[in-house]
Design goal:
Largest sheet: 39 strands, mixed
Shape: elongated
Number of strands: 39
């Protein structure tokens, strides 16, 4: 369009307006004059009647109403609800009607407007036909005795000449919190009326109320069960109300809950109990909206999914609803062509189909309730599942299910976002029929084999998964699990946990009792084979950091075990054992190894013992062991020198035979309580050697240092005892290449020693010692034993890295007392034999010589008495 065309069009519009103005000018003028006059008249009437209307209204409202009303401010207006006059009450508090005596108030509102006809100003008879409530709360209650708090009008007042009459035909509410509690029926609900409109001739005994209300339901509760919580509801329907019979008949419209629209028909009667006969219907409902009705605690899960498909539902509610009685409820539903998509991983459950029914049975209770899900079917990529589920008695449910499924476990991981298990790969197939009783939502029984019925087969193929908080990777899990009621037979179940592998055959007893209860135990009877058990990983898999010593060992009270184990190799830190064969029992938190044979540290060990986990913070460890030809150097190496740095693997050699018993407490981190360690050991060391053993070098004051750096001995025997944090070493004789030595003493766990040495020096060594250490003859306590050897008594006391070495007069005194005791005993024996003295001394050897034979008189008796 060019400029000339636009100009022509504007000229035409101007011409039309000029021709029309002469016709509309006068009506507009009279309309303006009339509106102005109306405003003037309304203002004048409001000014004239305001005081009288407000005073008369307040007077009559208190005489007509059965409630006490407190008002902050009152205004009269002819314009706010034009063409009607209105009284506006601000900051209103209406107390409960008499004789109700509950807490709180019936109504609290920022503003309530009462509207009536303007013409009633001139006759002085005000008929309230509309009420507007804004920003407030209404609390409707009926107590246990049936007394209500909402009986607004006083009975028996028939004065029709001068009164404020309530002939309501509409009530409007905006931002009003509504609470309804009916104690006799144990029913309560609370909701916010965002915007509500209630129209009808409320003054008639029988009228139709048209409801259009937008609600936010906080909760709807009955019999302590919250049926609806935090949901948006829109109601638009007609309700025929009979005040005398208190029957409410739903004749038109329905309810929209979330995005679900239900048609409602039927009636409710509200007397001593609430009687219901209602029908609900929904066609082509949205599945996502239906799932959104689930409790809020599941909302985080629901928001991860989107769904589509056809959903049908029809329900009935019929019967009385009171504290001890519930109506019969029945709902039938169906899903066709359903899809559920996991948003994050974009994986879809397709072709979802099911039909079902839920009802509360003949007793209208949880105990008689039934849920039937029939013809359930779904597909997940190449996997699929089908089956049926029947559930009865919602209080102590009894479940019966038949399921057939085959899935890639990675697909399941993506769809369900499983926790704490996360599948990486593998396939599983399941065909099972299960039937059993649930109590408190757990599948239990005092006699599970009689109650739980299960039959089927689970197959795992090359399954790999991780567990949250567990550092291990679980791979290669395969096997067959054959269900036989409450037991499962396990065949060729194998896999790897980190470096540890296993192959298991046996039986799992009371599987369902263990999985679905908190107090029942599982019984495992099995044989297990393994090429490698790597305890470092198994103990440290739940560690919060990489500390090698951070182990946690627990014995579950719900585990019973009978196990025959064969392990080719077991490794724990530096300790390595091979060809392990043993039987284990676990019951009542006590693990018992009845016979455990293994090859380790160059020799053979047979163990028996127990680990008791009944104490809260410690394990009780009891162990007996027999060691044969164990290499001592490897013992110190694989046991990491037992946590000390005095006698180390490079300082000792030899082959060890030993029998020992040990009792101690061990923490869950496998740390021994040294204060509670008690042990005895009978040891034999063959082909032994002490090499560069620093504490022995402290004897260089008495023996040449070269002789002490490489001390070898053919055999050593002793019984070692550990108690009170001390290693107690009774006297033992060591015959070595360097010297013959007797040793006894104690060595505590703080590395403080109290050793006593008795040296046996050969002539050659004695010469070497005297030659290199003259003080041996000058200061030492030397005794000739009559065999050409000498004895030297030495003590070593104090910290092992810096001991105090001295001549041991106490050792010499003890030796002198023992020798004197032996000499006295020999003298008594001679006196007894020759002269018949000390016959009653039982410590002496009995004289078994023939008394008929004469004693030689040629034998001389030499008696020497010490000072």
């Amino acid at each position: 369009m060019n400029h000339s065309e636009i100009r022509i069009m504007l000229n035409r519009v101007s011409l039309i307006f000029r021709n029309s103005w002469k016709y509309i000018r006068k009506p507009l003028l009279w309309l303006s004059i009339s509106f102005t006059a109306l405003l003037i008249i309304a203002s004048l009437l409001a000014y004239i009647f305001e005081d009288d209307v407000k005073a008369y209204f307040l007077q009559k409202i208190n005489t007509q109403l059965n409630i006490r009303v407190e008002i902050g401010k009152i205004d009269f207006s002819l314009l706010s609800h034009f063409p009607q006059a209105s009284i506006s009450l601000e900051k209103v508090v209406a107390h409960h009607s008499k004789p109700y005596k509950g807490k709180g108030n019936l109504i609290e509102a920022e503003q309530i407007d009462f509207s009536f006809s303007v013409f009633e100003l001139f006759i002085g008879n005000y008929s309230i036909n509309r009420i507007d409530i804004q920003n407030g709360s209404i609390n409707i209650h009926r107590d246990a005795q049936g007394v209500v708090n909402y009986d607004l009008l006083k009975p028996g007042n028939n004065d029709t000449n001068e009164r404020v009459d309530f002939k309501l035909n509409a009530v409007f509410a905006t931002n009003v919190n509504m609470t309804i509690e009916d104690v006799p029926s144990d029913f309560s609900t609370s909701y916010l009326i965002k915007k509500g409109k209630f129209k009808g001739d409320l003054s008639n005994d029988i009228f139709t109320l048209k409801v259009a209300s937008d609600l936010e339901i906080e909760q709807l509760k009955s019999d302590k069960i919250a049926w609806i919580k935090e949901r948006h509801v829109y109601i638009e329907m007609g309700i025929e109300i009979n005040k005398k019979t208190q029957v409410y008949t739903f004749i038109d419209g329905g309810i929209q809950l979330a995005d679900l629209k239900f048609n409602v028909s039927g009636k409710i009667q509200n007397k001593d109990v609430i009687g219901m006969d209602l029908q609900f219907g929904g066609v082509d409902l949205d599945i996502s909206s239906f799932l959104s009705l689930l409790p809020k605690e599941y909302s985080k899960v629901i928001t991860k999914y989107k769904s589509d498909g056809k959903f049908y539902c029809d329900a009935t509610l019929k019967g009385n609803w009171s504290k001890n009685e519930h109506p019969y409820f029945n709902a039938e539903f169906k899903i066709e062509d359903g899809t559920i998509r996991q948003i994050e991983h974009d994986i879809e459950l397709k072709n979802v189909k099911l039909s079902g029914r839920i009802h509360n049975g003949s007793k209208h209770s949880l105990e008689s309730s039934v849920l039937d899900l029939n013809k359930v079917y779904a597909e997940l990529n190449d996997g699929k599942a089908s089956g049926e589920i029947h559930l009865r008695n919602f209080k102590n449910p009894y479940i019966k299910a038949n399921t057939s499924a085959s899935f890639n476990l990675l697909d399941l991981e993506k769809f369900f976002s499983l926790k704490p298990v996360h599948f990486v790969s593998g396939n599983a197939s399941l065909n099972i029929a299960i039937e059993g009783e649930l109590k408190n939502n757990t599948l239990i029984s005092h006699a599970p084999s009689e109650i739980i019925k299960a039959e089927g087969l689970l197959k795992l193929n090359d399954v790999a998964f991780n567990i949250e908080g567990d550092s291990l990777a679980y791979t290669g899990f395969s096997g067959n699990f054959d269900f036989n009621n409450n037991d499962v037979r396990v065949d060729n179940f194998k896999g790897k946990a980190g470096k540890t592998d296993f192959l298991m055959k046996g039986t799992l007893g009371n599987v369902f009792g263990y999985l679905f209860s908190k107090d029942q135990a599982i019984t495992i009877t099995s044989t297990v084979q393994s090429n490698l058990v790597y305890l470092d990983e198994l103990f440290a898999r739940h560690a919060s950091n990489s500390n090698d010593n951070d182990y946690r060992f627990r014995i579950s009270p719900r585990l019973k075990l009978k196990l025959n184990a064969r392990v080719n190799q077991l490794q724990f830190r530096k300790f390595i054992a091979r060809n392990i064969v043993g039987d284990f029992r676990l019951d009542n938190r006590e693990l018992i190894a009845e016979k455990l044979d293994l090859k380790t540290m160059g020799g053979n060990i047979r163990l028996a013992g127990s680990v008791n986990g009944k104490l809260e913070k410690h394990l009780i460890l009891i162990c007996t062991a027999n060691l044969k030809k164990v290499d001592i150097t490897q013992v110190f190496n694989e046991c990491e020198d037992f946590g000390q740095d005095v006698l180390k693997k490079e300082n000792i050699q030899g082959k060890l035979d030993a029998d020992f018993q040990l009792n101690t407490l061990v923490s869950s981190g496998l740390v021994i309580d040294l204060d509670k360690l008690f042990a005895t050991a009978n040891i034999v060391i063959n082909e032994g050697a002490l090499l560069n053993f620093e504490p022995l070098n402290n004897l260089s004051r008495f023996i040449s240092l070269d002789e002490l750096r490489n001390v070898r001995f053919s055999s050593l025997k002793n019984q070692i005892e550990i108690r009170n944090r001390n290693v107690i070493i009774p006297r033992m004789d060591i015959v070595s290449n360097a010297l013959n030595i007797g040793v006894s003493g104690t060595h505590n766990f703080d590395n403080v020693v109290d050793y006593h040495f008795e040296l046996f020096l050969s002539d050659l060594l004695a010469k070497k010692a005297r030659k290199s250490k003259k003080e041996n003859e000058e200061f030492g306590v030397i005794e000739d034993d009559g065999l050409g050897k000498t004895r030297l008594f030495i003590s070593m006391k104090g910290p092992v890295n810096k001991p105090s070495i001295s001549y041991d007069s106490k050792g010499m005194q003890q030796k002198f007392r023992e020798d004197l005791k032996n000499e006295k005993k020999s003298m008594k024996q001679i006196l007894k034999e020759e002269f018949g003295l000390f016959k009653k001394d039982t410590s002496l050897i009995q004289d078994k010589r023939d008394p008929t034979k004469k004693t030689s008189t040629k034998k001389k008796v030499l008696i020497e008495f010490d000072n």
